[in-house]
Amino acid sequence: MTARGGKAMAGVAAAAVALGVTQLLAVFFGPEADARTAVGSAVIDLTPGPVKEWAIQTFGTADKLFLSILVVAMIAAIAAVSAQYESRRFPIGSAAIVLAGLAGCAAVLSRAGANVADIVPTVIGTVCGVAVLRLLTSGRFTDEPGPDPATDAPDRGRRLSLVTLGFLGAGALTGVGGAVLSRLTTSVAGDRNAFALPKIDVAAPAVPPTVQPQGVALPSFVTNNGDFYRIDTALSVPQLSRADWELKIHGMVDREITYRFDDLERFEVIEKLVTLTCVSNPVGGDLIGNAAWTGYRVRDLLAEAGIHADADMVLSTSIDGFTAGSPVEALTDDRDSLLAVGMNGQPLPTEHGYPARLVVPGLYGYVSATKWVVDLELTRFDRAQGYWTPLGWSARGPIKTQSRIDVPRSGQEVAQGAVTFGGVAWAQNRGVRGVEVRIDEGDWQPADLGANYADDTWRLWSFKWQATKSGPHTISVRATDNTGAVQTGDNAGVIPDGATGWHTVSFEVN
Ligand SMILES: Nc1nc2c(c(=O)[nH]1)N[C@H]1C(S)=C(S)[C@@H](COP(=O)(O)O)O[C@H]1N2
Ligand SMILES: [Mo]
């Protein structure tokens, strides 16, 4: 190895030790001390809205994996480069590690619920990283300022490489070990498994099989928990047990209330099917899912607090500091918005908000569907903002009337003769009255509709067509909601309040 390569490796090894030690020590300090999550979350928070949007569109649910890889690669690159300039007089590499450590401490302290003790792992990790870099570049192994160890002192050079590799391995081991250990010690999987959903007082109407059109492979009317889209800013899924959960209701209320999980027992348990949609869902996208939610009416929980007449927003906050601003009426009117604890007959999956989340029919998730929710503040739209609003998204996010073609897929080849196409349409809180389909810019023709389950759920549709003319074709779809409004054909992007336009798919008859 050349001296430069050796120093670069030393930098990477030192960074690995710093990160590894920090990660391992964080196990003993709890989740708030996890610098890795804190830094990643800070990066997410500091990333400009359009870049976040690009990441969601490009990487979908893998956006956070991409972020983690990017951050680790950047740390390694900075460590490798800065370590080249490390010398006794100008400890540039050490300075870089100290700066990174300070940034880590700042990130830790910026997280909800963190206190000063939570920076201890990062401080110790930083000190270890600097010590390793000083050691590896001290000349102890190479007799600096002697000649290039690789050519003139092969044994010493080899010894340096081995020591460097040893530190690199130790860093990786403590890092991975720490991450695994903290996962094991904080996981709420056991708590979740032990949770028996409360007995339902007001069950959802049964789902008739006729909601599902026949003869075409469409998504199932009820989305399995495992297939349900997931969108959130959480870099590691918050692990909040029922015993640690509390919901504080405060702000413009007569009485502040804090519910413990067991306190929910006195409220009526309802079950309701609601289709959730993400505002970042592009036309034709799949950030939408339909589930049976079990839980409590938010209205009932709020009633005990006594809402002031001039409050028009409920600002909900999650354990990890995400916020959403919903109109008070959406949480209190007869749409029965839920504090959900169950999803399709199971306790909420951890990544979908265990132990409790909001589900608000008719509003995009970013202004309503707070997962791991712990706080409801009664306030006003002219005083408070949810997480996404200052990033360029609308303060209010009613779901737009939309529809999607699932069959055919783009570019699909269709044989001559009878074929059935189909998809989904949604206009939560208004309901879908009709769906129309257009082939090759022809006339709009009515599609066959699956049975209407409820205004708050999507509606599946199908369309029988005779494929005669071979060659390329297109199919477009548009829905009409129960107010009589026809889905607009004006194309708009997802920012600021949800995409519009007709989903059009190209296919081939042969
Ligand atoms: N705590 C928290 N809750 C959140 C979010 C978040 O980032 N953090 N994202 C919201 C958004 S944008 C959407 S679309 C829905 C998605 O819910 P799901 O992941 O269960 O499908 O969660 C909402 N609730
Ligand atoms: Mo979303």
Automatic annotation (TrEMBL):
GO term, biological process aspect, one: sulfur compound metabolic process
Domain Oxidoreductase molybdopterin-binding: 235-388
GO MF: heme binding; molybdopterin cofactor binding; sulfite oxidase activity
Annotated TM spans: 65-83, 90-110, 116-136, 160-181
Pfam families: Oxidored_molyb
UniProt keyword annotations, A-Z: Membrane, Transmembrane, Transmembrane helix
SUPFAM superfamilies: E set domains (SSF81296), Oxidoreductase molybdopterin-binding domain (SSF56524)
Keyword match Iron-sulfur: no
Gene3D superfamilies reported in the protein's UniProt record: 2.60.40.650, Oxidoreductase, molybdopterin-binding domain
UniProt-listed InterPro entries: Ig_E-set, OxRdtase_Mopterin-bd_dom, OxRdtase_Mopterin-bd_sf
PANTHER family assigned to the protein according to its UniProt record, in alphabetical order: SULFITE OXIDASE, MITOCHONDRIAL, SULFITE REDUCTASE
Name of the protein in its database record: Sulfite oxidase-like oxidoreductase
Organism name: Mycolicibacterium rhodesiae (strain NBB3) (Mycobacterium rhodesiae)
